[in-house]
Amino acid sequence: MSFHENAEALYEKTFNELSREFDQLIEVIDSEHVTVNTANITAALSLQAIVITLIIMSAQLAIDDQDTADIVSEHVLAVHRLQNRKRTIIQVIGSRNVTITLSSLEIVASVQILTEVLIVLLTELDIL
Q: Which DSSP string do the residues of 7-76 spell out, in sequence order?
């Protein structure tokens, strides 16, 4: 598999894992004109998956020993799995003209930290 194909597969796997860990249950009962917007969450999870993928792929490029690179990659994923469980339950009952927009500051904070890790890694590799 090529580097590009590996990166795409890793991104897809990471995004799917992140999405599964972010449970959303929105129940609408006997209501009218309810709008639910989760685009912010999906975009944030996608960005988070991209940064994790970049960190792992950069580490694999920088570390000559493939076994060590795999261990580092697994550690990055394991740490992130421990931090990332979120559950949202919303019930809308007997309401009209309701707009629900979901967002998550936890994802934003995580992306900021991951971006800082990526910058340090790229700086140490003398890429930046």
A: HHHHHHHHHHHHHHHEEEEEEEES-EEEEEE-HHHHHHHHHHHHHHHHHHHHHHHH-S-HHHHHHHHHHH
Q: What is the pLDDT of residues 87-122, one digit of tens each?
A: 788 899 999 999 998 877 778 888 888 898 889 888
d(CA 41, CA 123): 30
Domain span at residue 109 reads: 3-120
pLDDT digits (tens, 9 = 90+) for 43-63: 888 999 999 999 999 888 888
Domain count, the chain: 1
Is 11 part of any domain? Answer: yes
Longest dimension (CA), the chain: 61
Of 110, 91, 117, 120, nearest in space to 45 by CA: 110
Is residue 43 in a domain? yes
Which one-letter amino acid corresponds to residue 55? I
